[in-house]
From TrEMBL:
PROSITE patterns: 2FE2S_FER_2
UniProt-annotated stretches for the region Disordered: 108-127
SUPFAM superfamilies, sorted: 2Fe-2S ferredoxin-like
2Fe-2S ferredoxin-type domain segment(s): 16-109
Organism (species): Marinobacter lipolyticus SM19
Name the UniProt record assigns to this protein: Ferredoxin
Domain of life: Bacteria
Gene Ontology MF annotations: iron-sulfur cluster binding
Taxon lineage: Bacteria, Pseudomonadati, Pseudomonadota, Gammaproteobacteria, Pseudomonadales
Entry keywords, A to Z: FAD, Flavoprotein
Amino acid sequence: MSITKNSQPADPAPLKRFRVWVANRQQSFTVTSDQSLLAAMEQSGAQAIDVGCRCGGCGRCRIQVLHGQYESKRMSRAHVSEHDEAQGLVLACRILARSDLVIESDQFQDPRQATVEPNNNNEECKQ
Ligand code: FES
């Protein structure tokens, strides 16, 4: 009996594209299944969600998901409690769309967070 191993890497799952409608800003953009909502919004040139650290650490990109399916990466409980998350309040930089979405932006917890500058070097971004 012999065992053969397939040395070819598995084909990556094909990317899917979804539409994100930001109801309170009357804007939409397209996101692929491997992008965070925030990254897709920035790539599209839309200005529908406020941008901060891009890493889940500042809470500036908090949104309310009204309709649709998504997958969440780890989020700071300082900005999104378990109760918030159960209600669809999430960080746009930490979720991946799994269907078309309808969201509302401007869900800040603390207006003092408006001074946070974008940061691409945060270790939390790599998780
Ligand atoms: S941009 Fe800072 S938490 Fe998303």
